[in-house]
């Protein structure tokens, strides 16, 4: 199951991620 998650990356920019990102930080994977 995949979820559309809204993240703030390390630069403070907001982006949308679907499920697990290939290039994501630990925070992105934990939230998404």
Topology:
Layout: E1 4-8, E2 14-18, H1 26-31
Antiparallel strand pairs: 1-2
Continuous helix count: 1
Roughly how many Å is the radius of gyration? 9 Å
Given the C-alpha coordinates, what overall shape results?
A: globular
Mean pLDDT: 56
Query: Largest beta sheet, briefly?
Result: 2 strands, antiparallel
Domain module tally: 1
Task: Give helix % range.
Answer: 10-25%
Total number of strands? 2
> N-to-C SSE series?
EEH
Classify the beta-strand content into a percent band: 25-35%
Flag low-confidence runs: none
Q: Helix/strand-derived class?
A: alpha+beta
- Tell me the distance between the termini: 11 Å
Q: Strand order, biggest sheet?
A: 1-2
């Amino acid at each position: 199951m995949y979820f559309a998650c809204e993240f703030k990356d390390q630069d403070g920019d907001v982006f949308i991620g679907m499920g697990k990102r290939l290039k994501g930080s630990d925070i992105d994977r934990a939230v998404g």
